[in-house]
Design goal:
The protein is an alpha+beta fold and 218 residues long. The protein has one domain: L-fuculose-1-phosphate Aldolase (3-Layer(aba) Sandwich), CATH 3.40.225. The protein contains six helices and eight strands. Strands 4-3-2-1-5-8-7-6 form an eight-stranded mixed sheet, with helices on both faces. Strand 6, helix 4 and strand 7 form a beta-alpha-beta unit. Helix 2 packs across helix 4 and helix 3 packs across helix 5. The protein is globular, with a radius of gyration of 17 Å. It starts with a helix and ends in a 10-residue tail after the last helix.
């Protein structure tokens, strides 16, 4: 498990260095069995910046919300638990308060197919989950619904979630979603962009299948 603890720390620091999280915002988790073989996951601790964390600060949780470690788990542990429990092929979850995704989330609107790379999230749109209090079960329920058959969503007036088969793939999705949010916000300054059709987006989905790290398996 120590290897996964270090991976979680490395990804958290990359998110910080890329400007996708600042201060103590955001959180990351990765699926890993406990020392006794019990299914569960590691999650970043509550109230610590990536600069402050060490690998030993990562908290292990099982799917009954029991935890072990010297720190408290992130306040958003509920949606990490629910996503990993309900999406067995997903092994990593990244949540950020990145600038453009968070800004766009205040509009409480889905990101439409203005660019073909929207398909990397698994569909024609990147959904925006309704607002709910951070750390609440209602927020987790909304996030799980917004992520149905998707690998990314916005959280209204909050930020974004990206999910994937590995931490590295999930980081790449996080970066791409933030780029798409930036591009969409720039486009909206001019007007409403022309959108791709469902048929055009389906062509992209078909092209993405088996296409390296953007493979759309979920």
């Amino acid at each position: 498990m120590q290897e996964q603890r270090q991976q979680l720390l490395d990804i958290s620091r990359q998110l910080y260095s890329l400007g996708l999280n600042r201060g103590t915002s955001g959180n990351v988790s990765v699926r890993v069995d406990g020392d006794n073989g019990q299914p569960g996951f590691l999650i970043t601790p509550s109230g610590m910046s990536a600069e402050q964390m060490s690998a030993d600060d990562m908290v292990w949780m099982d799917f009954s919300a029991n935890c072990s470690g010297r720190r408290q788990p992130s306040s958003e542990w509920r949606f990490h638990l629910d996503i990993l429990q309900h999406r067995p092929k997903i092994n990593a979850v990244i949540h950020t308060h990145s600038m453009y995704a968070t800004t766009l989330s205040t509009f409480r609107r889905d990101i439409p197919p203005f660019h073909y790379m929207i398909a990397l999230a698994g569909g024609d749109t990147i959904r925006c989950a309704p607002y709910a209090l951070f750390g609440s079960q209602l927020l987790s329920d909304h996030a799980l619904a917004a992520l149905y058959d998707r690998k990314a969503c916005l959280l209204a007036n909050h930020g974004m979630i990206a999910i994937g088969e590995t931490l590295e793939k999930t980081l790449r999705i996080t970066e791409e979603v933030e780029t798409l949010c930036e591009q969409y916000l720039h486009a909206l300054q001019i007007g409403e962009p022309h959108l791709l059709t469902h048929e055009e987006m389906q062509e992209v989905q078909d092209k993405f299948k088996g296409y390296g790290d953007w493979a759309t398996k979920s």
